[in-house]
């Protein structure tokens, strides 16, 4: 998590020592994304409506960029609240010195939690960096090699098809080369910020689910406290940890709500158009591998959030199951009442949602895929007609 926080500080989405510069970094991303990528792509789609496949390809790439812009805008808007949530999670997940009860199980779970988050950060970041290089720099490199070998200018295209109002970047090879270089750097700048935003959200959701699991483990070990006063004291401590988990889950549900709503809608549109483009562009290898990468990206995005939503639901309910398994009936009347209140509270399952419209879990992931294939069948018939 430390490396993620460092990069977020560099981009201006986290408090740093040089906090006065965060407005500059944030505005740079929005200015580059809007003026150099989004608006020219929209102009291209408007001016080339007759080229259906090119317009679909540009729209697909545009929806990916907009997804990252929405995520980063939410991250910036909820910056102070997310920092507070992060500090609470850090404090809650720290080992408690002197706690001799059930710490072996809890410590082992904490270690596994840190290993999982570190593995996800390294794996996903490395894979996405390779994808960025392949997507952004391989096509222009091939064009440059062809031009150097033959002396003939091959067909020119940008990373995202664009119409710049002030100039035609395809008029000269030198202009195209400069535009391709600038667009590649802008794409890398935006995409890395988006990747870090995704990793931050995923790791925090994993930690929230992990905290619920730790709370359940502590509930299961309440039977080890023989004295009623010690039981009550430990129960209050565990309930405080559970409250941090609940509060963190609610905060991330609010933070990710707009992104999830956009992601579910954009995923259906993107997957439908991507499959149509792939089905009708069998002769264009560059277009095929680009569409395959976007297809993999969108499916993995919605799959990751759906699985994490399911895990948080399961982890939050595991606390209620753990309380019910203890020998609460052997306790004093006062503690039994307290345990019953905690049990009733723990039975409220925590869910992640897309602005309260749909719950984000495995079932909705499956429903999105089924809807996608249904819409694809209809759209493919219309396209062929």
What would a concise description of this structure say?
The protein has 385 residues and is mostly helical. It has helices spanning 2-11, 22-47, 52-77, 79-93, 103-150, 173-220, 228-280, 285-325, 333-346, 362-384. The protein is elongated and about 90 Å long.
Number of helices: 10
Structural class call reads mainly alpha
* Morphology call: elongated
Rg over CA atoms: 25 Å
* Biggest sheet architecture: none
The strand count comes to: 0
SSE string, helices as H and strands as E: HHHHHHHHHH
**What is the overall pLDDT average?**
82
Work out the helicity level: over 70%
Flag low-confidence runs.
none
Indicate the proportion of strand residues: under 5%
State the end-to-end CA separation: 51 Å
Descriptive overview:
With 385 residues, this protein is mainly alpha-helical. Helices cover 79% and strands 0% of the residues.
Any key phrases for this structure?
10 helices; 385 residues; 0% strand; mainly alpha; 79% helix
List the helices and strands and how they pair.
Blueprint: H1 2-11, H2 22-47, H3 52-77, H4 79-93, H5 103-150, H6 173-220, H7 228-280, H8 285-325, H9 333-346, H10 362-384
